[in-house]
Structure formats: C-alpha cells, structure tokens
Amino acid sequence: MAEDWHDMDDAAIDWIVRLRDPGFDGWEAFGAWLAADPAHAEAYHRLALADQDMGDLVKAVPAPVVAPVVGLPPVRRTITRRTWLGGAIAASVAGLIGFGVIERQPAFYPVETAPGVRRTVTLEDGSRIALNGGTRVLLDRKDARFATLERGEALFDVVHDDDAPFKVAVGDATLVDVGTRFNVLREGKVTAVQVAEGAVIYNPDNEAVRLDAGQALRALDGDAHLQLAAVSPAAVAGWREGRLIYDGQPMTEIAADLARWSGQPVRADPRLAERRFRGVLSLGDGDDIVRLAPLLDVDVRRDGGTWILAPRTQ
C-alpha cells in the first residue's frame, strides 16, 4: 500500500525539527529514511525550503492571548516552529502569509546532504549538480546560473551558454564554466577542482587560471600559491560510482573522502596523516572501512564513534 502523503509530510517535518538539534546523531536513520523512497527526499527538501522561508515570519507572529478566567492573569499561548510549519503547509503558504511575504522570501536557498547520502539536483536550464555526502550548496532563485559550494563535494554538469556563463563561488574564489563538467571539493579552507570535460576559469578577475579537461587545481584560502596537477578525466567524481582513484593524496584526504561516502566519522592518525597513497578504492554499501585497511596498508580501529586509520602493528 502506498504511503499516505500526509504521513510522509509529517515524517519530513519531524526530521527537519530533529536536524535542528546541535546534538543530533541520527544520521544513519535519516539516510535510511531518505533512501527508502525517492518521494521522501522530495518531501524533505520541499518542506525544509518552506521552513526556511517562514523562519523570519514565525519570529514576527505575536503569541495570541487567551481570554482569561476571572481572577487569573492572561495566558499567552506559545506557537512552536513545528506547529507553524505543519499548519502552514496544510493550509497552503500563499493563503496564510500572502503575496507580500512570498515576495520577500530570500533569494538564496540551501540544498544539502547528510554524510553518506548522495543526491542530484537538476536546475531550470538543464544543468545538474550531484552532491556527495555531507555537502551543502546555496542556489539562487533569481539566477539559475549561479551556485555557492559551502562545504563538501559536488560534480557540476553544466549546460554551456556563452551569454550567461555558469559561476560557482567556493571559499574566496569564483569558478566560471567554459562548456564544462567539473568536480569541486571544499574541505576546511581548501578548495580542489578537477575538470572532466571542457574547461573552467579559476578566479577570472585575479589569477585567471584556465583548467582544461584532465587538469586539477588545489588552493588554500589566503595562500597565493596554487597547486596544479594532471588528473584522468575518467577519475573525476569517481565517488558517484563508488570508486576513488588516488595519485599520491595524503591519508587525511582519504579519511575525509571515506567519511563523506560512508556517513561515518573517519580520521587519520597524526603519525600517518601525510602518508601518500596511490591506487583505487572500490566502495560498496555498508561498512567498508575495515575491508579497505589492507589496501591502504593501515590498521583500522574504533575510538568512540570514529574510525581511525592508524599505522599497522606487527
């Protein structure tokens, strides 16, 4: 029997409320719920967007005063975000808040994935953005040719338009497409770009570095030095097929890649953090971290809820 859409929306609202808790640790259950039915992800992102749009409005709504009982002070009823969100969606946003509020909704809206969850977004012009786990991008309602990668990793498959080049803001840089399929990683203060097809211009108003297919760039915020390298176009965004190809990347980067893919915290022991690895890791569903230990020539152990890639013991 098909799931009732009311139940689906109620579940989505519950996740929105729970994810707002800084101590939330139910990523595995959240990912399983999203994966159970494509309609779950659609409902979640639709209602999360509505929640964001109404955030400021909720703060402005005065708490209604309930008529007092003789001899008792007035009672002020609290309206929670969940109550407002559920009621607003049930009665329709437009009917409740009116055209003026809709006009004032923010131009930018986020699309994000939990660790271990991947998603592809298709834009109005047909361009597509594939998000790896633990990724957040900002899109612009007023400009479908602009995106900001705040954190994580995304593959941009862009429909080229000479009159309106697609731009991606990441860190303190801007990328401009030249008929392009490219992967962008934002980890801490590091930005890494790999081009599979076409070309990308890195910071056209400053360094203006052109990256063609098979080229990669790595930049650190505040550092004028850019690291350029070659990359196999076929290896770009291999994470989409569960395949990670390395040519001398440090173990810290590999740990971060495994964390995004698996949805589990992974870090490298400081003793081997800068050890370089060359090879291919084939990833599957479930707990692959221990299975990869012999390929990485490391020991894998648990420290609380985190997987540690540590030097091998004899």
Describe the overall structure.
This protein has 314 residues and is of the alpha+beta class. The chain has three domains: 106 residues, no CATH class; 130 residues, Jelly Rolls, CATH 2.60.120.1440; 69 residues, Phage tail protein beta-alpha-beta fold (3-Layer(bab) Sandwich). The protein is 27% helix and 34% strand. The protein has seven helices and 20 strands. The strands form four sheets. Strands 3, 4, 5, 6, 7, 8, 9, 10, 11, 12, 13, 14 and 15 form a 13-stranded mixed beta sheet that branches. The chain has a three-stranded mixed beta sheet with strand order 17-20-19, with helices on one face. A two-stranded antiparallel ribbon has the order 1-2. A hairpin with a 2-residue loop joins strand 19 and strand 20. Helix 1 runs antiparallel to helix 4. The protein is globular, with a radius of gyration of 23 Å.
